[in-house]
């Protein structure tokens, strides 16, 4: 789909075997003689956690799927590694036209995924040395169409993936509860429909917490609880289910939230507030 955007293909077709874009649609690259070969180096212009290797490989694999000449990639770092400013990340060798045609799609993936991985690692660094380890989770607040990619970056940064979407786990929120007629009713219905799926309930009060425990929730999300109330919730729950903290989580608050004893912390900012990492590709 990224190549289709650049090369004017149909967005309905986006596999290597079925693409209908053409590298010949890069009219600027056509200024270069077809036989010209080139070598290029990609660097990061700032400190980051690198992520995006399989996406770069797929960009050039699709561009050269029906060609005898392939683009060769030499990796100088691995996904999940910290990199410094001006550090080389990978080398490319092949048709000068194809290197330039694939440059922006490949770097767009790396700059966004590295940004996500970098944001996660900043949170993970804040959580080192905790008496009780916990999982830092992502959310569904992802870039449309790129959730799987961002969740991959979360894992590379040291975080954990929450549910992939609406299909693999229950997350029963305020409006679900109201529409179902209550917490107990929502949980009972969930168990009837999909007994094998984990059930998580978002609560805003201690009373709702008690109701959720009694209803048999697997996970309870404490929505915007203050630290004092969060500690009370941990004591009350006594490991009868997992507790997840959500809301008002940032780099300044994540450590104190973790120290309340919750099992998980979910952070939307690590996918929705990211700033692209500055990269550069130069021919040698």
Automatic annotation (TrEMBL):
EC code: 2.4.2.19
CDD domains in UniProt: QPRTase (cd01572)
Pathway(s): Cofactor biosynthesis; NAD(+) biosynthesis; nicotinate D-ribonucleotide from quinolinate: step 1/1
Keyword Transferase attributed: yes
Keyword annotations: Glycosyltransferase, Pyridine nucleotide biosynthesis, Transferase
Pfam families for the chain: QRPTase_C (PF01729), QRPTase_N (PF02749)
Enzyme class: transferase
Signal peptide coordinates: none
Quinolinate phosphoribosyl transferase C-terminal domain sequence ranges: 117-282
Residue ranges of domain Quinolinate phosphoribosyl transferase N-terminal in the record: 26-114
Domain of life: Bacteria
Family to which the UniProt record says this protein belongs: Belongs to the NadC/ModD family.
Entry function: Involved in the catabolism of quinolinic acid (QA).
Record-given protein name: nicotinate-nucleotide diphosphorylase (carboxylating)
The organism of origin for this protein: Corallincola spongiicola
Lineage: Bacteria, Pseudomonadati, Pseudomonadota, Gammaproteobacteria, Alteromonadales
């Amino acid at each position: 789909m990224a190549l289709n955007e650049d090369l004017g293909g149909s967005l309905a077709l986006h596999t290597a075997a079925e693409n209908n874009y053409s590298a010949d649609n890069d009219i600027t690259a056509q200024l270069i003689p077809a036989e010209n070969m080139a070598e290029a180096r990609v660097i990061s212009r700032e400190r980051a956690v690198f992520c995006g290797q399989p996406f770069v490989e797929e960009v050039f694999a699709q561009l050269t799927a029906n060609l005898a000449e392939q683009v060769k990639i030499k990796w100088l770092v691995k996904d999940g590694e910290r990199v410094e400013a001006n550090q080389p990340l990978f080398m490319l060798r092949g048709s000068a036209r194809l290197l330039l045609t694939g440059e922006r799609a490949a770097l767009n993936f790396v700059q966004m995924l590295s940004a996500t991985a970098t944001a996660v690692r900043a949170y993970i660094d804040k959580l080192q040395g905790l008496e009780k380890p916990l999982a830092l989770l992502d959310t569904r607040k992802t870039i449309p169409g790129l959730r799987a990619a961002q969740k991959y970056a979360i894992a590379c940064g040291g975080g954990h993936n929450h549910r992939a979407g609406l299909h693999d786990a229950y997350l029963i929120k305020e409006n679900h509860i109201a529409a179902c007629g209550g917490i107990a009713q929502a949980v009972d219905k969930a168990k009837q429909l999909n007994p094998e799926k984990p059930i998580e309930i978002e609560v805003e009060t201690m009373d709702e917490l008690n109701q959720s425990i009694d209803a048999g929730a697997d996970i309870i999300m404490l929505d915007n609880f203050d630290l004092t109330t969060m500690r009370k919730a941990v004591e009350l729950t006594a490991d009868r289910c997992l507790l997840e903290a959500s809301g008002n989580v940032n780099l300044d608050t994540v450590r104190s939230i973790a120290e309340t004893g919750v099992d998980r912390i979910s952070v939307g900012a690590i996918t929705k507030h990211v700033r692209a990492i500055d990269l550069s590709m130069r021919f040698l």
